[in-house]
Amino acid sequence: IFDKEAKDLEREVCFIDIASDEIPERYYKESEDPKYFKSLKTGRGQLKEGWRETHQPIMCSYKLVTVKFEVWGLQTRVEQFVHKVVRDILLIGHRQAFAWVDEWYDMTMDEVREFERATQEATNKKIGIFPPAISISNISMPSSTRSAPSSAPSTPLSTDAPEFLTVPKDRPRKKSAPETLTLPDPAK
To answer: Phosphatidylinositol transfer protein N-terminal domain spans which residues (predicted)?
Structure first.
């Protein structure tokens, strides 16, 4: 389905089964488990092993995820980690969409848009409004500023942290450690 978007990329197709695939234990809720949920409005539910062959209708959702983390020594691990997290998010989100069908099934498009607006407003109140934090640009650096072999990805050399890593000034920082730490004098 994504032939034009990813024709030159190496791809792995990953099928997600909302009923049978394992999810992280901390996200599990029996009320959102498709094996136990049955919709009152649609009659859909209690998806058992092999449900894709026996249930109608079936909805497919296609996602194309591309991750590039071009830092030598970390690239494979970080890219695999990001793909796993995205897969978990999609699995959990689609399980919830199925289990919450009775809440959204009869909604009109206007009601959906109002629900989206109210959810966004509530989220902004809770965490604040942040401008987009990451910008991606392709800047070629002269070879004299590089410290790695020419086969390594180029990373601009700078002692300043990128702006997207700074803590917003209008948001208080969480403190996870004391301001100062006093260690005992080893001479005593």
So the answer is: 9-121
- Domain boundaries, given as residue ranges, for the chain: 16-124
- Mind listing the pLDDT tens digit for each residue in 23-34? 888 888 888 888
Cβ pair 121, 45 in contact under 8 A: no
Under a CB-based contact definition with an 8 Å cutoff, are residues 157 and 142 in contact? Answer: no
- Backbone phi, psi, residue 65, to 5°: -115, 125
Asked if residues 112 and 119 have their Cβ atoms less than 8 Å apart, the reply is no
Region 7-25 average pLDDT = 80
What's the predicted TM-score (pTM) here?
A: 0.57
Q: What is the pLDDT of residue 15?
A: 85
Residues 6+ apart with CB under 8 A from 166: none
Domain spanning 16-124, CATH class: alpha beta
Backbone phi and psi for residue 13, each to the nearest 5 degrees, phi listed first: -90, 130
* Residue partners of 49: CB distance under 8 A and separation at least 6: 19, 20
Q: What is the pLDDT of residues 162-182, one digit of tens each?
A: 565 565 566 555 555 545 556
Q: How far is CA 104 from CA 15, 19, 41, 91, 152, in A?
A: 25, 20, 10, 19, 49
